[in-house]
Specification:
2 copies of one chain form a homodimer. By secondary structure, the first copy, chain A, is an alpha+beta fold. The first copy, chain A, contains 8 helices and 11 strands. Chain A binds a DNA duplex through helix 7.
Chain lengths: 235, 235
DNA sequence: CGTCTCCTTGATTGAAATCAACTTAGGTGG
DNA sequence: CCACCTAAGTTGATTTCAATCAAGGAGACG
């Protein structure tokens, strides 16, 4: 599992700090796995079964994590049970880095997954010591912020079709195969991410299939038939 | 205008970097003004009239800004004119810090306002030099990320009443007077921030007034009559 | 005093939520 | 291996909340 990190191009991490902050190094799939490199893991890789909680919102945020494999969702609940998924995290992503003492979101395993824990205090010390790591994590924080803003645009001003198209495009981009994407999450998860009900997600996927933009191989396997059209829907 | 910064308790900025990252120093109004302290301004304070664009999405992001006075909105447009306001920025807030080469949002003056420009390259250099500044800006980025996530929850899973109540509570918190808040923005702005139409915002405010939670002194001056009830609506 | 922008209010429409079956796919154990 | 069970997904009918369309009203400013 942790060999995964070794397959990544190590060269990339050598880029100049100033260059990264100046924007020449927008985080990409290839460098994601290096974001916590050089940091001492706070323990062995931890594995979680589908549906298990990794941490709960409001608990002490003493460690943060990097995904090795699988998919994690970070989400929040309203007291009547409504849920909003803030983001899905895949191999290489960091999650659980907080500004406050407590986690502001809960994290749960969407499917079988493995994560590496890191101590927040160690990160704090390293950031105070001017090394490449601080730039990487800072870049990551800014990148997450940009993503959160884009997600707001999606949630606030788009129709169901546009939301679902946007979701698919997002997954095409982090999928090894650009023709067929396999979703690890349920319709409910997708709905809670997009601010829709599971029925609407299902209907909308059906609609996109009928107009020949996608093909549902199985419920969780989707073939992208017209990426350009999807992209223009998602704007 | 820039005297504003002097009224802030300078002691706060002396806190230990590690302490901030560990979450004991969640950014508050009182320390906001120090976030860019120690950085050399890239020029004189710039003033903008109501409605003026400070920068446009997609242009080169060579400087970022700190608000001295007034209110700024950062927003994005869809090609059919729909707009999503990502956030409003008030005195002390930083905006325009980007991970990419270009601004991902546009920034516009909601009302007459003054901002200080800073060079992004200087920030990059300073972050690479381990000083207090990097911790402050890093903390700011994480804080913005948390806010963006909370905004997503608002946009995705709440009714019109809950959205408007949440908006009011947000402004009570950054208002000098906790009983009466004065809004600098139009109903359209509020709608674009909450993912509602201006008519719905107006109707919802009318509704909140009818149930005695608020009182509309003028269209832009709102007296909060029952903050607790509003807060419980906004959850 | 007229004009413009912002705000409010009303009537109607429409997209997505809700409620409700029904189907499919996986997993378990007889 | 098949029957059963359950969770996930699809599809249909109906309702609801907010959008849209439309008309007036209030304030600011020359």
């Amino acid at each position: 599992m942790s060999q995964l990190a070794l397959s990544v191009d190590e060269g990339r991490v050598a880029m100049q700090p100033a260059a990264m902050l100046s924007g020449w190094a927008r985080p990409k799939k290839e460098i994601k796995l290096n974001w916590a490199s050089g940091l001492q893991a706070a323990g062995p890789v931890r594995c979680f079964r589908e549906g298990r909680e990794i941490y709960g919102a409001g608990t002490q945020a003493e460690v943060f994590f990097q995904v090795v494999s699988g998919v994690i969702r970070t989400c929040k609940f309203l007291n009547d049970g409504r849920r909003q998924i803030s983001s899905f995290h895949v191999a290489g992503d960091l999650f659980g880095i907080e500004v406050g003492v407590h986690y502001s979101l809960s994290a749960e395993a969407v499917c079988e997954c493995a994560v590496i824990p890191y101590r927040r205090r160690e990160l704090a010390a390293r950031v105070a010591h001017n090394d490449i790591l601080s730039i990487q994590v800072f870049t990551y924080a800014l990148w997450s912020m940009t993503r959160a803003q884009e997600h707001s645009l999606l949630l606030g001003r788009r129709s169901a079709v546009e939301k679902v198209a946007g979701f698919l495009i997002e997954w095409v981009e982090c999928s090894p195969n650009s023709r067929v994407i396999s979703l690890e999450m349920t319709r409910q998860d997708i709905g809670d991410y997009l601010g829709l009900t599971l029925e609407t997600v299902s209907r909308t996927l059906g609609h996109l299939e009928r107009v020949c933009l996608i093909e549902l191989l199985t419920a969780r396997e989707i073939r992208i038939k017209d990426a350009a059209a999807l992209r223009s829907l998602s704007l």
